[in-house]
Each structure stands twice: as structure tokens, then as C-alpha cells.
Write a structure and sequence with these properties.
By secondary structure, the protein is mainly alpha-helical. The two termini are 32 Å apart.
């Protein structure tokens, strides 16, 4: 809950949430209080969305000004062009090396392994979600005896209709 409090735009709405953390069982049993809590959270979320959009807009504007400052410098432009030429040479050498059958096979294996790692990570994430939903526990002991804690990461994206 402290993450929410750190990003609030209206601190008065949060004070009750921090006081009620210890009595979260009571909130869950009283639909009216739970509704109020959800509404406060929704207001905090919407406030943070607006703040985030304003920050992103400001960042975009400042970043464009910074980019212009670099592009308007003659020395930077010259060095940047040289860097682009070196990048082209690097790509040409890399392409030549990758044409070697042994290296091409190794590159394919690396690509396949990356894909397999990604699929395995997604499966693990799905299993951990199911484990948490069924057990309510955020820790799990591995076969090596090491205790690992689950970390939840949530993003908000615009809905595509």
C-alpha cells in the first residue's frame, strides 16, 4: 500500500487506507466500506494516470529540445555521422561472419534458446499465479532449498476495441 501512498495526488484520501491496513478483514466483510475503499483507489489511480500523462508529455517536449541542441552542434553532427559509418561497417562484418555455416548454426541455436527461455518464463509466471491464487502464499521453496518470494508487476494499458 505504501507504493500507492508515494504516488498520490490527494493525500487526504489515503489517510483512512493506511489506518485500515490492519483491519483489512473488516473492510472485506463490509460491502459499503469495501466499495468506498475501491472508489478511493480508483480516484488515486485516475489521478496518477493524469499525472503520468502530464509527465510523459513534458518529458517528450524536453527530450525534443535536448535532441535539437545536439543536432544543432556541428561537432556532434560530425561525430554522429562517423559513428553511423562505423555502425554500417560493423553490420557488414557481422553479416559476413554470420554467413559461416558453424556460426549460422550457433546463431539459430541461440535464437531458439531465447525463445524457449521466454516460453518457460511465461509458463512459470502462469504457474506462480495459479499457486498464489490457490494457496495465498507469496513464497515458495525451491528444490535447492532456497526460499523465493513472488513479486507482482501490474501495468495499465489502453483497451483496444
Amino acid at each position: 500500500m505504501s507504493d500507492i501512498n508515494d504516488q498520490t495526488t490527494n493525500p487526504e484520501e489515503v489517510t483512512e487506507d493506511t489506518e485500515n491496513e490492519s483491519s483489512s478483514e473488516v473492510i472485506q466483510n463490509d460491502p459499503g466500506e469495501k466499495f468506498e475503499s475501491i472508489m478511493r483507489l480508483e480516484n488515486l489511480i485516475n489521478g496518477n494516470i493524469l499525472d503520468l500523462e502530464q509527465l510523459q508529455s513534458s518529458l517528450k517536449e524536453q527530450n525534443a529540445m535536448l535532441k535539437d541542441a545536439f543536432e544543432n552542434d556541428a561537432e556532434y553532427s560530425e561525430v554522429s555521422k562517423k559513428a553511423q559509418e562505423v555502425q554500417k561497417l560493423k553490420k557488414a562484418v557481422k553479416d559476413r561472419i554470420i554467413k559461416d555455416p558453424g556460426v549460422a548454426l550457433l546463431n539459430e541455436k541461440v535464437t531458439d534458446l531465447r525463445s524457449e527461455v521466454k516460453e518457460t518464463q511465461q509458463a512459470l509466471s502462469d504457474y506462480l499465479t495459479q499457486y498464489y491464487q490457490e494457496s495465498g502464499m507469496r513464497q515458495i521453496t525451491g528444490t535447492d532449498g532456497e526460499v523465493r518470494e513472488m513479486v507482482t508487476s501490474v501495468r495499465l494499458v489502453k483497451r483496444r476495441d
